[in-house]
Amino acid sequence: MAGSSPAEYVTHHLKHWASSEDAGFITMDAWHIDTLIFSTVLGLIFLTLFRIAAVRATSGVPGKLQNFVEIMVDFVDNSVKDSFDGARTFIGPLALTIFCWVFLWNCMDLLPVDLIPHIWAQIYGALGHDPAHAYIRVVPSADMSATFALSLSVFILIFVYSFKGKGVGGFTKEFLFHPFGPKLLPFNIILNTVEYLAKPLSLALRLFGNLYAGELIFILIALLPWWAQIIPGLGWAIFHILVVTLQAFIMMTLTIVYLSMAHAHEEHH
Amino acid sequence: MQASIPSIVGQMIVFAIFVWFTMKFVWPPITKAMEERRAKIADGLAAAEKGAQALKAASSKADDELKAARTQAQDILSTANKQATQLIEQAKAAATAEADRIKANAAADVERQVSQAKEALRKQVGELAVLGAAKILKREIDTKAHAEVLGDLAARV
């Protein structure tokens, strides 16, 4: 903030409001309170909005909210229908939740970078703490904890759907003998392990990387003199509208694709 | 940049709850409403189709009825015409017959009167002849003896 060097400004902005001081890359005991609060609140906004529409849902002439919600549901339902040929009672809601939730997470990136941290610093100071140590990050998808939570959930679901679609035996057979055949079993295992691990990793890191980089650029733009911020800030924000939507869409689509791949009962060869 | 394991677990729990909520309370009512609306629209379209077909059938039926009614009217008209002509013919025939009868009666009357007049005249001529002869032959001629001759004479007149 004021009076600090650019490096300090940037690192301050990239530090979480955590339950304990732990600087490690992977921490076992520090909760990221900011990520939890913002993601939960955003999720509740999504659920409240959609629940209101669901309660008022009529098969007659729909209102504006219902129209919007129906467009979202229809869009997600069609995306699922395109690649998943099974009951959509679970995958549909899952995809809808992922899309809307991640979209709202990403939208937080469009808030001015200093707005909420500044307000938080005031509150933190008013509570009798040192405002210089008021850390907060408002974009949940720029925190690996949030993106990995999603991708690991999807990872678990991949196994659930594999077992459901192919049976435990079928899944094991495919894992051991596919794609090179039984004679090259070790290679099959190595390849499949890498393939399975790549799914949650790529899913989480893609979203995280995009939004983290976006946030970082906004922070760097904020370091410029105020008159020089307007053009790059505007440009990056406009470009970011695309990234926000696109990343939410990719997250949803890949989830559907992974689950339908897991579910598909196909005999190879 | 830090990944927090407790946050990941917490987020996963929140995520699970959100998905459960969406699955239970958001997705079904909305998809149901959409499905119902789709069915309604389909029903409406089918009903419109049916209505159009019914209209077509009704109008063709009306056409048929109209045609039948026209034919019937034509029939009635021609029957009535025929009957009228018949009546006229009958009346004409009756009138002619009556006229003939009256004419015949009149002719018979005339004949009878002519013969009566002839008879009367014959008698008077006979009487006159007898009277004349009596006057001429006053004495010698006996009325009774010459009545036969006079009667024969009167018949010849």
From TrEMBL, chain A:
The chain crosses the membrane at residues 36-54, 87-105, 144-163, 207-228, 234-259. GO terms for biological process: proton motive force-driven plasma membrane ATP synthesis. Gene3D superfamilies: ATP synthase, F0 complex, subunit A. Keywords: ATP synthesis, Cell membrane, CF(0), Hydrogen ion transport, Hydrolase, Ion transport, Membrane, Transmembrane, Transmembrane helix, Transport. One of its GO terms (cellular component) is proton-transporting ATP synthase complex. It is found in: Cell membrane; Membrane. InterPro entries: ATP_syn_F0_a_bact/chloroplast, ATP_synth_F0_asu, ATP_synth_F0_asu_AS, F0_ATP_A_sf. One of its GO terms (molecular function) is proton-transporting ATP synthase activity, rotational mechanism. Belongs to the ATPase A chain family. This is ATP synthase subunit a. It comes from Stagnimonas aquatica. The lineage of its organism: Bacteria, Pseudomonadati, Pseudomonadota, Gammaproteobacteria, Nevskiales. The gene is atpB.
Automatic annotation (TrEMBL), chain B:
The keyword Ion transport applies. One of its GO terms (cellular component) is proton-transporting ATP synthase complex. The chain crosses the membrane at residues 6-27. It is a single-pass membrane protein. CDD domains: ATP-synt_Fo_b. It is found in: Cell membrane; Endomembrane system. Gene3D superfamilies: F1F0 ATP synthase subunit B, membrane domain. Keywords: ATP synthesis, Cell membrane, CF(0), Hydrogen ion transport, Hydrolase, Ion transport, Membrane, Transmembrane, Transmembrane helix, Transport. Belongs to the ATPase B chain family. Component of the F(0) channel, it forms part of the peripheral stalk, linking F(1) to F(0). The b'-subunit is a diverged and duplicated form of b found in plants and photosynthetic bacteria. F-type ATPases have 2 components, F(1) - the catalytic core - and F(0) - the membrane proton channel. F(1) has five subunits: alpha(3), beta(3), gamma(1), delta(1), epsilon(1). F(0) has three main subunits: a(1), b(2) and c(10-14). The alpha and beta chains form an alternating ring which encloses part of the gamma chain. F(1) is attached to F(0) by a central stalk formed by the gamma and epsilon chains, while a peripheral stalk is formed by the delta and b chains. F-type ATPases have 2 components, F(1) - the catalytic core - and F(0) - the membrane proton channel. F(1) has five subunits: alpha(3), beta(3), gamma(1), delta(1), epsilon(1). F(0) has four main subunits: a(1), b(2) and c(10-14). The alpha and beta chains form an alternating ring which encloses part of the gamma chain. F(1) is attached to F(0) by a central stalk formed by the gamma and epsilon chains, while a peripheral stalk is formed by the delta and b chains. This is ATP synthase subunit b. The lineage of its organism: Bacteria, Pseudomonadati, Pseudomonadota, Gammaproteobacteria, Nevskiales. The gene is atpF.
